[in-house]
Amino acid sequence: MAVSAELLARRQAAVVRGVSNATPVFAERALNSEVWDVDGKRYVDFAGGIAVLNTGHCHPHVIGAVREQLDRFTHTCFQVLPYEPYVELAERLNALAPIHGPLKSIFLTTGAEATENAIKIARAATGRSGVIAFTGGFHGRTALASAMTGKVVPYKQNFGLPMPGILHAPFPVAGGRVTVEDTLHYINLIFKADIDASHVAAIVIEPVQGEGGFHQAPPELMRGLRRLCDENGIVLIADEVQTGFGRTGKMFAMEHYDVQADVICVAKSLAGGMPLSGVVGRAAIMDAAEPGGLGGTYAGHPLACAAALAVLDVFEREDLLKRANVLGQRLRTAIDRFARANALVPISAARGPGAMIAFDVYKQRGSDEPDPEMTKLITRRAHENGLILLSCGTTASTIRILVPLTASDAIIDEGLGILERCLAA
Ligand code: PMP
User: Fold this and answer.
1) What local confidence, expressed as pLDDT, does residue 180 receive?
2) How many helices (H) and strands (E) does the chain have?
C-alpha cells in the first residue's frame, strides 16, 4: 500500500471531515515550485499553498532568516517582550502600502484574523458597527470573517445565524448581469432598507476576488466606493490577503486603482510560508483601539516576522514584480491558445491581473454555462499527471493558477503542458 494511502486512512479516522483536502497525497518535501509526495512522486506546484508561496517553497534567503531567528529565540509574545523584527516589518509595510499619510501596522497570524481586526479597528475608529461586504467575497472562516464571506455553502452551512450587522452587495463580474451602477445603487438601497449609512463602520472588498473566481473590481466601482465612504465617514478596507505581495504584478492590487483604501489586510505570501498576517492603514484609524484591545499570544510571531523581512528582500533582489507580469503573460498566452483549441474542453480566455490568472470551464463551446464536474475532473487529472492545480469560483468551475513567481519558464511550461493534456478530454 502506498504511504499516502495509509496516511489518508489514518487521516480519515483521526481528522474531522470539516477540513477538506484538495489532493489525496501527503507532502514530503518541496523546493521553489516543485513538491514531492511521501511516495516519491514529483509535482509542479501551481497552487503555492493557496497564494502563500509567491517567493517559492523554502526560498534559501527566507529559510536562512528563519534559522537565524530560531537560534536567537522563538517566542516571547510581542505584548510581553517586544522584538525588533516586528517593528522593522511595520516600518517597511507602512512605507510600501499604497495609502498617503502616516501609517501604522499590526501583525497577527491568519488572514481571517487580519480581516476581523480590520473590522474591530474600523468599529473603534467610527463608533459604528455595520459592515458592507460583497457576494462571492471571501474573508475567512472565523465567526466575524465568515459572516463577511459572501457564500453560504460551505462557509456558513450548519453554523447558525451569521453575526448581525453585515450586509452583502452584489459584486459586478465582467460580462455578468450586475453592473457597477447596480452595485452602487444596491448599496444605497441597503442604506435605505437595512442600515443608515451613519451606522456603517466599513466597506470591505477584495480588489480581485480570490476564492470567488479571480474577478477584478472595476476601477469605477473602487472610485464609487471611495466616494460613498468619503461622503458617509465609512472606512474602506481592502482585503489583499490573496492579492497582496506581488501576485497581481504590483506589490498591492490597490496600486492598480486611482483611489486608495484606508486600511489594507495582508497575509499569505507576506511571510513566504510562515503564518503571518497584518493590517496596515491610516494611523488615525489604526490607533483607535485601546491598548490591550488588539493582539494575540502568537500574533506577529518572531520567526514569521523574520521570514517576512526576507520575503521583502527577495522581491527587491529578484525583481519579482516584473517577473509576475512576464510570467502572467506566459500563462495568459497559453490559456488563450487552449481556449481557442476545438479539441480541448471548452474554457474561457484567461483573466486576472499580473500572475493572478484564472479561467472558467464551460459545458459547451459557445455557451458560458459553468461545468463544475469537468472542473473537478481536470484538477484530479492534473494531480494524477503531476500538477497541483486548484479550482475556485462561486460555481466551482474556475481554475486558478497561483504558481510561485520564482518558478522558471521551464517549470511553467511543464505545468502548462500537463494542463493542456488534462483539457484534452
Ligand atoms: N481573505 C482572503 C481574500 C482570502 O483569500 C483568505 C484565504 N483564502 C482569507 C481572507 C482568510 O485567510 P486564512 O485562511 O489565513 O484565515
Assistant:
1) 97
2) 13, 16
Cβ of 110 below 6 Å from ligand 1: yes
Determine the pLDDT at residue 2. Answer: 87
Helix 180-193 crosses helix 219-232 at what angle (to 10 degrees)? 30
pLDDT of residue 127: 98
Q: What is the pTM of this model?
A: 0.98
Q: Is any ligand 1 atom within 6 A of the Cβ of residue 266?
A: no
CA distances from 118 to 43, 240, 314 (A): 37, 12, 27
Q: Does domain 73-317 have CATH number 3.40.1190.20?
A: no
CA distances from 237 to 14, 73, 99 (A): 39, 34, 11
Ligand 1 atom closest to the Cα of residue 114 is 10
Q: Is the CB of 111 under 6 A from ligand 1?
A: yes
Give distance in angstroms: CA of 393 to centre of ligand 1: 14
Domain ranges of the chain: 3-58+319-422, 73-317
Three cell numbers, residue 400? 486558478
Cβ 374 under 6 angstroms from ligand 1: no
Distance 183 CA to ligand 1 centre (A): 23
Q: Which of these, 214, 198, 196, 120, lies nearest to 163 by C-alpha position?
A: 120
**Ligand 1 centroid – CA 278 distance (Å):** 12
Residue 138: which of 150, 152, 156, 121 has the closest Cα?
150
The CB of 207 under 6 Å from ligand 1? The reply is no
Determine contact, residues 305/107, Cβ cutoff 8 Å: yes
- Report the CATH fold assignment for 3-58+319-422: Aspartate Aminotransferase, domain 1 (3.90.1150)
Average pLDDT for consecutive 10-residue bins of the chain (425 residues)?
Answer: 93 97 96 98 98 98 98 98 98 98 97 98 98 98 97 94 96 91 98 98 98 98 98 98 96 98 98 98 98 98 98 98 98 98 97 98 95 98 98 97 98 98 92
Atom of ligand 1 nearest to the CA of 115: 10
- C-alpha closest to that of 216 among 173, 262, 180: 173
